[in-house]
Amino acid sequence: MTPSDLGFLNLLVDCALTEDLGDDGDVTSQATIPEGLKGKAAFVARSPGVLAGLEAAQRVCQRVDHQLEFSPLREDGYRLAKGEVIATLEGPMRSILVVERTALNFLQRLSGIASLTRQFVDAVAGLPVQILDTRKTTPAWRRLEKYAVRMGGGTNHRVGLFDMVLIKDNHLAAMNGDIRTAVAAARSQFPKLPMEVEVDSLEQLELALSASPDFVLLDNMNVEQMRQAVARRDALAPSVKLEASGGVNLQAVRAIAETGVDRISVGGLTHSAKALDIALDWTE
Q: CA-to-CA distance for 269 and 239, rounded, in angstroms?
């Protein structure tokens, strides 16, 4: 994780623990588990998938009790088999019970995103195309979710509105569809930022190519339109990268990649990933 990722992680861990513990802490464990009783447990994959979120789980443990010993046995990005032990946890039983759900929430969510991303990456294996995420992320979780995409073999699109110029349909609508003027204005004000223009027709594509952005996003085009778009790009502006977006799923992604586009963005990597089934089992 980058330093910025870790900053967001620390904030999220603190918020998650505050949400779970409230003012009185784990009242059930306080009432039923003798103070000072020690135990051991293991994080176990109940389903196969790609691991992500170990740093988050470890930081949850550190925030709750420095006596807890979190020992990872695998690394983020590792392909888990069903039943595989991910990490062990040892220390006061009350503290183990406090961290259990919060640590699992981070691991399950991030591993689910990494696992789904890997399915898309595997589906286009052997083709010169990148699988990208989008900004369709859980509020405040974006840095972590984009990290999980990387662990699954995907590539991050822009982090936010600040690190890339993306001229979309609503920007163009406000400028009466004047792509060249929009690109020129953005180049003038933010010359060092990468630039992308969204188009939804082949006619718009030619206008966009004439403005020489770094990328053109092909919004909701069918496979035949994408093939034609690639041919026009090759003839008019071969240095411009083409990105397919809209309605991308596992069944369609290979055919989209075979059109010759350079990038495929998939909102579902983050907004529709199913949590990976991971449990915390007592070992003694």
A: 28
